[in-house]
Specification:
four-stranded antiparallel β-sheet; alpha+beta; 8 strands; 116 residues; single chain
Amino acid sequence: MAKTTKNELPAVPVTVVNSQGQASLIEWLDGNRPRRTFVPTAAIVDGLCIDPAAGIAYGDDWEASIGTLSVTPASVADELRRRGIWTREDARRAPNLVMSALQAAYGLDLARLLAE
């Protein structure tokens, strides 16, 4: 649970992933979404950091890349049917075929995602 400071900014529980010199890479949950940023090591006190989102973002902007995906429910359904998955019972009996169908449906999008 976040604590409130005298400035009324919440102190967020963080995990220090790595520290080097005066900078630390931290990870925290923004709601249920994992985030990482670089912040000054001095900004972390007792496992808490005020406004970790103000740090320098770490990692790729997956949301922007994923926003360009072209997979559709119809393309996933086609791949399921090509593998003989017509019912939920079929899916329960053959989860590996379901995974194969998902991989096939997302294949082109994955190639594009990795190329960006």
